[in-house]
Design brief:
five-stranded mixed beta sheet, 18% helix, alpha+beta, 1 helix
Length: 150
């Protein structure tokens, strides 16, 4: 009997290790992103300017410190879908920066109220730092966007 229980325990530990490896291994996937904090207050959103590199993977972390809902979205060709950020909440938007000769623009606003335009200035690229990157960018403001709700 003790040998049989030992085998079951060993199989259980092995299975748990495999599952943990899959969960933690798949969740990171080499998708490290630079966090870019954006704070929304009653008066405005900040910062007004963000410097990035083409091909850089960033995570906009929009924290709404106002008493009303805020919205965040790309404008003038910047491909970021409109995202509602309820009062007191935070939303994270994953974004891969495309190559762009002109600044990309997003707006952070109260629906029907004050609007802050945020300029995203693209200078250089991730490959300028050496080593390259595993994805390609285009010369148009197309990008990958994933929204995470908390």
């Amino acid at each position: 009997m003790p040998v049989r229980n030992l085998r079951r325990s060993a199989r259980g530990v092995f299975a748990l290790g495999v599952v943990a490896g899959l969960v933690f291994g798949c969740s990171s996937g080499g998708s490290a992103r630079r966090a870019v904090a954006i704070v929304a207050t009653t008066e405005a959103c900040s910062p007004a300017r963000i410097e990035v590199k083409a091909g850089e993977r960033i995570a906009f972390e929009i924290k709404n410190e106002s008493s009303g809902d805020r919205e965040f979205e790309g404008i003038e060709g910047t491909k970021i879908e409109e995202t509602m950020v309820p009062a007191g909440r935070t939303r994270t938007i994953d974004y891969t920066v495309p190559e762009s000769a002109q600044p990309l623009k997003v707006k952070c606003y109260v629906p029907g109220g004050p609007t802050t335009l945020i300029e995203i200035v693209v200078s250089g690229s991730v490959t300028d730092e050496g080593g390259g990157h595993p994805f390609k960018t285009t010369k148009s403001p197309n990008a990958t966007v994933n929204v995470h709700l908390d």
